[in-house]
Amino acid sequence: MPSAIDARLAELGLELPLAAAPVANYVPFVIEGRLLAISGQIPLTAEGPRYLGRLGDTLSLEEGQAAARLCGLNIIAQARAALDGNLDRVRRIVRLGGFVAATADFTDHPKVINGASDLMVEVFGDAGRHSRAATGAASLPLGVGVEIDALIAID
Question: The domain that contains 87 carries what CATH number?
Fold first, then answer.
């Protein structure tokens, strides 16, 4: 029987990507007690990275939000892998840390990261409401426009 969160994903028409393997000397997630830390996720698909560039230059706000949403899907995919497929163990999304590759005059970082924040609430309901940071960066790995990490409380 599918979990309640898997049923919610299906209801929303969302399919999770495969959890990406790390590309450097780190692990994709760590469980310590009742906390699950997810390493930074980029807008990666099976075809490779998407949404390359910087906000305020080559990427629009809407593209940035779509990139953040894809990062959020990758966070949920990593959580599923960490929790042996059982997303019902997610008690609360505690915090998202958002990084936005942007020009010096771009100031809508929070609006970009809303792409992931909104997704967490759509999928997990009130348990998806979280604290957050949204900051700018000159560049991000592989030239992507957004990277997001997560801290999740689990059962």
Answer: 3.30.1330.40
